[in-house]
Design brief:
- It contains 5 helices and 15 strands.
- By secondary structure, the protein is mainly beta.
- The protein has one domain.
- The longest helix has 10 residues.
- It is globular.
- The N terminus and C terminus are likely disordered.
Length: 278
């Protein structure tokens, strides 16, 4: 449970060492930040934001730096906040280093992961922990779950029915390309790749076909479903797409009066804004 909650906190991640056809910075489409809303069983519980920092030299390697800030509260017992920096190799976009600064059940934890892709080693340094240092061995390439899911490799050939296996420091994740689906996204219809994943937890992923950015992610846990959905203001609609005005809170209330799915508090749920087209 703790491993999953840490992943949620910083969420809610060439695949085989090849270069991306589309650079990480290009995914931001000129914006500094990409924002997502977090829902638990359809009710808004927080947010997570990705910011592109730029490039930085890390132990002699030119790395692209991404910063993630998350703040989510599930029910009355799980209050998650965190900041994370992910350093990706400038050519392969595999992780070079990951730094986490999180609050878990009111306790602050600082974690640094140093990746050696050539030797297949990840060194984990923890502060405020009895086990301060740990070495993990894994067959390369070794991925980071966040960069894998949010910045899905652009040069990966998505073939219907095929399953790819990605190795994380402590587990393997299988991702299956299930089908192409049209997703109703903030009143628009978006063409997506629908992927089904299985690792420590089962998850679903809807990737925008143009940018390879996730429009929606679903994570299934024993007591419910966590849904992470992209803010519309951060996604530039292609010329071929149908542009639709963003609905403010007044318009959403009016839609609710007309029978749209709406919560009792007057806050819209993900079921209203994000639906697959029948």
């Amino acid at each position: 449970m703790k491993k999953f909650c840490v992943t949620l906190c910083v969420l809610v991640s060439g695949v085989l060492g090849g270069a991306y056809a589309q650079e990480i910075e290009d995914r931001f489409q000129g914006d500094d930040t990409i924002s997502y809303r977090v829902y638990f069983n359809g009710i808004p519980v927080g947010k997570t934001e990705w910011t592109y920092i730029g490039t930085e030299d890390v132990r002699g390697v030119s790395a692209e730096v991404l910063e993630i800030q998350s703040d989510a509260k599930i029910l009355h017992f799980l209050d998650l906040k965190g900041e994370e920096r992910v350093y990706l190799h400038g050519e392969t976009h595999l992780p070079v280093q990951v730094e986490r600064d999180i609050v878990f059940f009111g306790r602050k934890e600082r974690i640094r992961e140093v990746y050696n892709q050539q030797e297949g080693v990840v060194k984990v340094h923890k502060q405020n922990s009895k086990e301060e240092k740990k070495t993990i061995r894994q067959q390369p390439p070794i991925h980071n779950i966040l960069s894998l899911l949010y910045f899905f490799p652009d040069d990966t050939g998505l073939q219907k029915g095929e399953t790819e296996v990605y190795r994380l420091p402590t587990q393997e994740v299988e991702i299956n390309f299930h089908s192409q689906k049209v997703l109703k996204f903030h009143g628009e219809e978006r063409d997506t790749y629908f992927l089904v994943g299985r690792g420590a937890k089962r998850f679903n992923l809807w990737l925008d076909q143009d940018l390879r950015l996730p429009l929606r992610l679903e994570f299934f846990i024993p007591f419910g479903k966590i849904t992470i959905v992209k803010e519309k203001s951060d996604l530039n609609v292609s010329a071929a797409g149908n542009s639709a005005p963003r609905m403010n809170r007044f318009h959403l209330r009016r839609c609710a009066d007309q029978g749209s799915i709406y919560s009792r508090q007057g806050i819209y749920t993900d079921k209203f804004l994000f639906q697959e087209k029948d």
